[in-house]
Structures are given as C-alpha cells and as structure tokens.
Specification:
Elements (H helix, E strand, L loop, with lengths): L2 E2 L2 E2 L2 H11 L7 H12 L8 H10 L1 H6 L3 H4 L3 H9 L1 H42 L6 E3 L2 E3 L5 H16 L18 H11 L5 H7 L4 H21 L1
Antiparallel strand pairs: 1-2, 3-4
Helix pairs in contact: 1-7, 2-6, 6-7, 7-8
Length: 229
C-alpha cells in the first residue's frame, strides 16, 4: 500500500520496501546492502568490505530500535541502510512513533517465536518425536543426522509463510583449543575503545559478578526446595 501508519510513502520508498522483501537473505544480505549503498552514492568501494560488513551487521539492532534521531541520523551504518531502503527505514520510524520501540521489539520477537517455535519446532517434533530439538537465540539445535530434514523444513516453511527465501548456516560445533583470528578481532573490537580507567570501571564487572550472584541465589533456592520436598 502507498500509506502505512497513516503516512504517505513515495514511489521510491515503496520500491525500496519491495527491494527489501526480495533482498538476497539466502546469500549475504549485509554485503549486498554495502554494495548497493556504494552503487547508489556512486562511490568507489575501496574500503575493506569484510570490516564494513562486520560493522554494519553489529549495527542492525540500532537500525531496528534506535529512536534517538540525533543518533539515528548520524550513525554511518544506519545512514547506509536509509540510503538503500528508505521506505523500510521510514516504516521503522513510524512504528517507533505509533507503538514505541519496546512494543515494536515485542512484535518482532513474537513473530520470530511463532515461526520458529509454534510452526517449525512443533512440526519437526511431530515428524521426529524421538529427536531432541532446542533453541539458543535464533539457532535450532539437534543431532547431526536430523540436520538435513530440519534445514529443509525451515527453508520450506519460511518461504511459505513469509514469502522470503531465507539463508541458513549449519555447523557441527567442535572444541578448538587454538584461538581463531576472527574471535580475537571480535573481542578486540569490543575492548579497543576502553582506554581510560573510567571506561574500564563501567564494564569490568558488568556481567560476571551479577551472574555469579544470581546463580548462587538460584542454587540456594533449589537446595532449599529439595530439602523441603
């Protein structure tokens, strides 16, 4: 439709929404956006595409949920998305105004949960009742021998329900004792800006200390329940 949230969308914005729906999610969506941005702005792509892709991918949560327009309109990765998909960006901003970013996040989470849990996991369990399946974030986990069937189910049902050809990565996790350069680069990217004592104090115990305390409290409660039982 040419209007959403009672807001008029231009032909170019509508075209960008259609383009987004047919983006190559089954291949490398992030590199596609980067290449389209440089093509639209008529700039030579001379930078490290791999680094640009990593930065753009990390910024996608800001693309979806940043509602501070001073930040939104000055973040280079959000600007990249705005240039390639102006209609989608406009729709996201209207969603923030109409229902707020929290409800918008709930909407996306529930849509994903419905698709993965209520549809795909349910059907997989019905077809293979003895096969284990569980989720971690947006990943589905089962035994190796069931991966082809699960992959086929995910691709088919996502295409039928959303009309989008999605991409899937499958891998069998193995413990690698030697650190990989990609992992080192990822960690370094997160800590390289912690250059002052004040910045360090903000992050040094942010996760582990609180999680240890919470875990200890949980174990004490469980021990008490077992004794009561």
């Amino acid at each position: 439709s040419s209007f959403m949230w009672c807001e008029f969308f231009t032909k170019e914005e509508i075209r960008s929404i259609n383009h987004y729906q047919h983006a190559p999610f089954q291949n490398d969506y992030y590199t596609h956006v980067i290449e389209m941005y440089f093509k639209k702005t008529k700039q030579p792509l001379q930078e490290d595409v791999k680094l640009l892709r990593q930065q753009f991918k990390k910024s996608n949560m800001y693309v979806l949920f940043e509602d501070n327009y001073n930040h939104r309109n000055h973040n280079p990765n959000i600007q990249m998305f705005q240039k390639v998909f102006p209609g989608v960006d406009k729709w996201i901003e209207q969603a923030h105004k109409v229902i707020g970013k929290s409800r918008f996040a709930y909407l996306l989470q529930r849509a994903e949960s419905y698709l993965l849990l209520n549809i795909i996991c349910r059907e997989f369990n019905e077809q293979f009742p003895s096969a284990p399946i569980f989720t971690i974030h947006d990943g589905l986990y089962t035994y190796d021998q069931y991966i082809p069937d699960l992959t086929s189910l995910v691709l088919r049902r996502c295409r039928e329900i959303t009309g989008v050809e999605v991409g899937i990565k499958t891998k069998c996790d193995q413990i690698v004792l030697e650190p990989q350069i990609e992992d080192i680069d990822m960690v370094w990217e997160e800590i390289r800006n912690v250059t002052t004592e004040k910045a360090y104090d903000k992050v040094r115990g942010r996760v582990f200390s609180s999680n240890v305390e919470r875990g200890a409290d949980f174990l004490k409660k469980m021990a008490g329940l077992r004794k009561g039982y």
